[in-house]
Amino acid sequence: MKKKNLISVVGPTGIGKTRLAIDLAKHFNTEIISCDSRQFFKEMKIGTASPSEEELAEAPHHFIGNLSVEEYYSIGQYEEDALKKLNELFENHDTVILVGGSMMYEKAVIEGLNDLPEADEDNQKKLNEIFENEGIDKLQEILKELDPEYFSVVDFHNHRRLLRAIDVIWQTNQKYSELIAVSQDSRDFNTIRIGIEAPREELYDRINRRVDMMMEKGLLEEAKSLEKFKHLTALNTVGYAELFKYFDGEWDLDVAVSEIKKNSRRYAKRQLTWYRKANDIHYLTLGYSEEDFDGLIGYIHQKILN
Which domains does the chain have, with CATH numbers? Predict the structure, then answer.
């Protein structure tokens, strides 16, 4: 039986993945699965640059605004749900689009995550005490020393990710980056990875302008409405954490916005570090022409035939 195809659109934040994914979905008359872990939450539309109502109407999307920030959702649950949805979609489509910049979530779908040990209660207790007494900086320091490679790509503002990685390293005496590099499940579909690239200065300029646009669209009001949830993992992320400091009187608004831009650029840099290690991504240049898009379609058809 002919294998089904998953086209995975990857790249750093702000590069234009949403538009390319929609164009591909329209060409293949198919649907889109998001692997952007921040866009799962319905209350965080502006700060996560979720697709607009108009964009969502152009092609069916899945895993956009499907959760509340009050719900805990693990990467393991996402892997299970996304594969289930993918199998459903493959009943009616030969090709499905995956899109998002959450590197581990893409990996969970296209490769599967290695079987990692369950959380160790003693380790978790010890790490939570470190977090409460010495702050997230100490957890960052521990992980950087234990596994510099994983530290170079992890969202180090997310304490839950830091806790998990350190716990696993302590339990296994192996680097977390090595453990997750081993593919657990072979997938019964072809994966074709497509990226968008741009000079770093151009990318950073796009990110800065996008933050300004978010503020114009009402990011401040959105963050204010979520302030009561600021202790939750979902809100411990770029675009919200900085504005909570403004609400607390710790920073001026200009400083908070400047920090959002800086932290967004840092996140993009981590994404670029991750994708640079892959040798299976076919790149389009930012601002690609219709001719470039046609060339991409030719490349995809060639990969499908092979």
Answer: 4-114+183-305 (3.40.50.300), 121-181 (1.10.20)
